[in-house]
Amino acid sequence: MSRPLRLEYPGAWYHVMNRGLARQSTFLDADCYSAFLDTLAEAHRRFSVQVHAYCLMGNHYHLLLHTPEGNLSRAMRHINGVYTQRFNRLQKRDGPLFRGRYKAIVVEADSYLLSLTRYIHRNPVETRTPLVASLQEYPWSSYPAYLNKARAPEWLYRDFTYEALGRRDKYRGYKAYVEQGVDEELAEFYGRQRKYSVLGSEVFRERLLGGDKLVSAEVASRELVVRPPVSGENLVEQVAQVFGCSPAEILARSRPGRKGYNPARSVAMWLCQDRAGLTLPQIARLFGGIHYSAVSQSVRRIKTRMAEDEELQSLVDRVSRGVIVRCNA
């Protein structure tokens, strides 16, 4: 049997799904759900993937993703691979978690974005036995954030959906829209045993599936700015600016016998790994030729501190925003 068609281009939108191997559970407790959301956040930072809606069910997930850089495969390798590692550590198991490659449906966002968010968000009540009496009570989807009933993570993009809704009272309006139920066209599309790889009009499908030339024309017609890779040196400069120190203070190797916590240095190391994709040995060379195990320990400690220290997390968020602005300037 042939593999599902993969269509990737800058600016593409996708409905991405995956199930547990042999329908096994992929989320067993709150720690598992939180670990997956952490992995989504990392994919956003590392690959510029925008998450517009999500719903995590017991043995599968739904994501609505936008890829300005046309790099869905790389982002999904991170999401599925890293989450599997975290799930295995949490559950003290090993081996594969998902049934195989994720399924990605390319979406014509102008026509289907709004209705697709509704389809994704209604999953907890569209099961044979509804998981909750009221959708906004389900904590593992983006729906409560869409209603402003839960804090929206910085990587969740809601404005596109609100604009498509076109209602002045966006929270109440979106709630009323979702409560209307899934429309017949989408119900028929997702009810097919063998689904198309494209959700869109005939013109949209022909443009994507008509051959390499037509796909290239689709890409060429979009005025997109692809974010260039972030260098370790640029990240160090940005950290120094936010933390009020010099790049030299961050990069300098500590003198023998000198001990002390340097959050700017640790944050810069972590961002070099998370945002620039540098390996531990590469980071070790950049930060004074230290041993790569020291980098690993420093990164692990700063991630723990960020989870406990809101002020530190706020500084890190400022660094990330500054890097994005500078790269897109």
TrEMBL record:
<dbReference type="Pfam" id="PF08299">
    <property type="entry name" value="Bac_DnaA_C"/>
</dbReference>
<protein>
    <recommendedName>
        <fullName>Transposase</fullName>
    </recommendedName>
</protein>
<dbReference type="InterPro" id="IPR002686">
    <property type="entry name" value="Transposase_17"/>
</dbReference>
<dbReference type="InterPro" id="IPR036515">
    <property type="entry name" value="Transposase_17_sf"/>
</dbReference>
<feature type="domain" description="Transposase IS200-like">
    <location>
        <begin position="9"/>
        <end position="123"/>
    </location>
</feature>
<dbReference type="InterPro" id="IPR013159">
    <property type="entry name" value="DnaA_C"/>
</dbReference>
<feature type="domain" description="Chromosomal replication initiator DnaA C-terminal">
    <location>
        <begin position="231"/>
        <end position="302"/>
    </location>
</feature>
<dbReference type="Pfam" id="PF01797">
    <property type="entry name" value="Y1_Tnp"/>
</dbReference>
<dbReference type="InterPro" id="IPR010921">
    <property type="entry name" value="Trp_repressor/repl_initiator"/>
</dbReference>
